[in-house]
Amino acid sequence: MTCGTGRWAPTLALSLALFLSGPVTGAAPPSPLPTPAASPAASVPSATLTATVRSVDAQARTMEVMTGVGHALRVVKVSWKVPPAVKAAAAGAGMAQLKPGDLVRLEYAKAPDGNVVRTIEVLPRPAVQGAP
Amino acid sequence: MRHLLPSLAVGTLLFAAACAKPPPPPEPGEPLPGLDQAQRDQFERGKVIFNREFEPETGLGPLFNAKACGECHEDPVAGGVGDEVEVHATALLADGFCDPLADLGGFVFQQEATPALKNALGIDKEPVPAKATAQGGRSSPDILGFGLLDAVPESEILAYADPDDRNHDGISGRPNRFFDGRLGRFGRKALVPTLAEFNEGAFPVEMGVTVPAVPDEESIGGQPIPAGVDPVPEPELDAPSVALVNAFVRTLAPPSPPKLKGTARRGPELFEKIGCAACHVPRLKTGDSDVKALAHREVAAYTDLLLHDMGPALADICLGLARPSEFRTEPLMGLRFSEKFLHDGRAASIEEAIRLHAGEAAASQGRFAALPPGDREALLAFLKQL
Question: Could you give all domains of chain A from N- to C-terminal order, each with its CATH number?
Fold first, then answer.
């Protein structure tokens, strides 16, 4: 017997892995496309979406945001009749402060005549960790 | 004693297995070692769909770049490289925002059209809109081992980021982010966070085949599809089929480690010495994964999955946070399969590709050029075996 006991470890690990491993398709990625949100008080379905602001037209009361899946990118257009609540880290933030490139989380109603935004939260850009 | 016999038998079998020669590494196109039977079945069934040629009657188009995943990722096996070069275009606006022109059919502009679309609109490809400020070609890389790249934790990638070059080594990698803020890693500009999303987006973008995650067709330069041109109801491919393709791509084994002979054995040391490894990080470690064969493995990726400035001569489109001259460090695993190099295939050899490195890579390129001819040959011999 010249075989060392240290060589058991990979075999046992492989045996356990073969026994325990689950189906490859088990994990579903988070969907970046709009997700339905419960809206018991409203008759129209609502959705939430985290996306990047593409344009804001305060006069037309519309905003476009970028979203998509992989390289299949889509523009989602939302509008408002009364300015929606804007939550942001910066005090006094409002629709006038929103600009292309901002990362936002929207809650909006999917009405027959278009998406009507209810709330906008301006999210901080994730910090870049790195080497000192 | 009777109870000991089965244990003894199992022990003997395991001991014999441990003493046996290790199995050879997978051949190109084979699955990762360590998958169970169900996972291998999914791999094989996914491969069939990966290679399936779509036709207009089964969902192809009306705009497309290829009829099958395996048409562009084909050489030497399904999941390998391809000779197709597609067209990407975006607009860098005056305020600094990068518009991917999604409302005008971008940022991938398909190079083929179905006969029905040609008849309806008289076009044989999607036009690049005048609003685009830049366009670039994109070659088809091999995707062998990309499931391992998918399993690398964000913390591992971000540990290599140094956007302000605080360590003064001239290398300042930074991450790209998808439009919802998540870290990107797939695609030449590192826009896409996960392999599954890259695959799911590729069906509509590359083949015009809608899937449940993207149930609407690509527009034609921003215009809707003419009536009657695309009669197949959406989605044109169902969720189980998409999941099988994801399983296939995710569990494709990486290229086997090179068996370095002769001068090539000095290659890894030279690769480090002249600074290539600062961006083309030789090894990344995966983290947790629901697939045991992907969890806590080392992958000889030769990338940091970050964006780096490659200089003005290579610059083309912006995308997400990536500026025109920034590209994700190309994984060098599988380099042995390529015949054309760089993101758009403009380099006919590895040596030419190195010579075209500029920006953050200029110093390394200079050191490569200054190597004695024997060292240059050793480094190239090594790279050709990755």
Answer: 35-123 (2.40.50.320)
Smallest CA–CA distance, residue A69 to chain B, in Å, is 5
Report yes or no on B25 lying in a domain.
Answer: no
- Judge whether B65 is closer than 8 Å to chain A, CB to CB: no
Based on the structure, what is the number of domains in chain B?
Answer: 1
Q: In 3D, which of B140, B100, B105, B107 has the Cα closest to residue B126?
A: B105
Q: Determine the structural domain holding residue B369 and report its residue range.
A: 45-383
Mean pLDDT, to the nearest integer, of B326-354? 97
pLDDT per position as a tens digit, B152-191: 999 999 999 999 999 999 999 999 999 999 999 999 999 9
Verify whether the Cβ–Cβ distance B34 to A21 is below 8 Å: yes
Mean pLDDT of A39-67: 87
The model carries a pTM of 0.87
Of the pLDDT bands very low, low, confident and very high (cuts 50, 70, 90), residue A95 is confident
Asked if B191 is an interface residue toward chain A (Cβ–Cβ < 8 A), one would say yes
Please give the ipTM for the structure prediction.
Answer: 0.93
A-chain residues near B213 (CB < 8 A): 31, 33, 69
- Three-class secondary structure of residue B207 per DSSP: helix
Residues of B in contact with A130 (CB under 8 A): 158-164, 166, 174
Name beta bridge partners: A56.
Answer: A63
Closest CA to B101 of B119, B87, B114: B87
Cβ contact B87:B344 at 8 Å: no
Question: What are B3-59's pLDDT values in tens digits?
Answer: 555 565 655 555 555 556 778 899 999 999 999 999 999 999 999 999 999 999 999
Average pLDDT over residues B264-269: 96
Q: Is the pLDDT of residue A4 over 80?
A: no
Nearest by Cα to B162 from B304, B371, B5 = B304
Closest Cα in chain B, distance from residue A28 (Å): 8
Whether residue B322 has pLDDT greater than 90: yes
Placement of tokens 């084994």 in the chain: B253
Nearest CB partner across the interface for A24, out of B103, B214, B247? B247
Beta bridge partners of A73: A68
Q: Strand (E) positions, B167-218?
A: none
Find, in chain A, the residue whose alpha carbon is nearest to that of B244. A25
Chain A residues in contact with B167 by the CB 8 A cut-off are 131-132
Q: Which of A18, A25, A75 lies at the smallest CB-CB distance from B34?
A: A18
Helix count (H) and strand count (E) of chain A?
1, 7
